[in-house]
Amino acid sequence: MGTKIKLTKQQMKEDKFTTFMLQTRDWIQENWQIIAIAVAAVIVIAVGAAYYSSLRSGQADEAADRFAEAIGKYRQQNYQVAILDFNSIAEDYSGPVAASAVFYAANSYFESKNYDEAIINYQKYIDRYHIDEITTSSAIAGIAACYEVKQEFQKAAEKYLEAVGLYPGQAGEPDYLLGAVRNYVNAGMAAEAQQTLDKLDKDYAGTNQQRVATQLAMKLKIE
């Protein structure tokens, strides 16, 4: 008969916290792109329309057809084929069409767990296109998510805060602040985690992000 091991209250707290952190990280990997993908769609619809109108009719139809086909592959989770299509579109066109293709290529690399290539393409989007602060901050948050999955926690936290600083007050700000807290906690950087939590407490009190960040920060106080 095996010996029954009795856990201390401290061990139970740490075990619950570890489970909580893993669940949170899994959620981030699966859901952080919702905002980014929605933003990329806005680029295609709002800005891309003007670009299409400047092309000859045949070019516009071809660009629209190719992009729609690539998006179809992406939505079917056929990411490797989607990457090839998006990269080809980015080479053949310019302006918002190329920008959106690069952005979706980065998303596709992320989904296929090729985080280094995802970082390269998000950075390419930032450096070459920088259409507006919202889309650029989404790309920066994409880089942050890549670093987080790679367990480069300090870099991830700093990138989340960079996304916040680029466009203060944006819809994604509380999520980015939570991301910064989460990664500072994982990096063991208590002062930085508390400073970021203070901003969540001030600007987003009562939100789910603020409550989760508070739970995360408690880990550093327990240790």
Task: Kindly provide the name of the CATH class of the largest domain.
Answer: Mainly Alpha
Total domain count: 2
Within CATH, the superfamily of the largest domain carries the name: Tetratricopeptide repeat domain
Overall structural class, as computed from helix and strand content, comes to mainly alpha
Q: Kindly report the average pLDDT value.
A: 79
Helix segment tally: 11
Termini separation (Å)? 34 Å
Biggest sheet statistics: none
Uncertain runs are: 1-25, 33-55
* Quaternary: single chain
What is the strand tally?
Answer: 0
- Kindly provide the radius of gyration, computed on alpha-carbon positions and rounded to a whole number of angstroms: 20 Å
Describe this structure in words.
With 223 residues, the protein is mainly alpha-helical. The protein folds into two domains: 1-31 and 153-223, Tetratricopeptide repeat domain (Serine Threonine Protein Phosphatase 5, Tetratricopeptide repeat), CATH 1.25.40.10; 33-150, Serine Threonine Protein Phosphatase 5, Tetratricopeptide repeat, CATH 1.25.40. Helices cover 83% and strands 0% of the residues. It contains eleven helices and no strands. The protein has helices spanning 9-31, 33-54, 57-75, 79-92, 95-111, 115-128, 133-149, 153-166, 173-187, 190-203, 208-222. Helix 9 runs parallel beside helix 11. The longest helix is centred in the first third of the chain and has 23 residues, at 9-31. It is elongated and about 60 Å long. The protein starts with 8 loop residues before the first helix and ends with a helix. Residues 1-25 and 33-55 have low confidence and may be disordered.
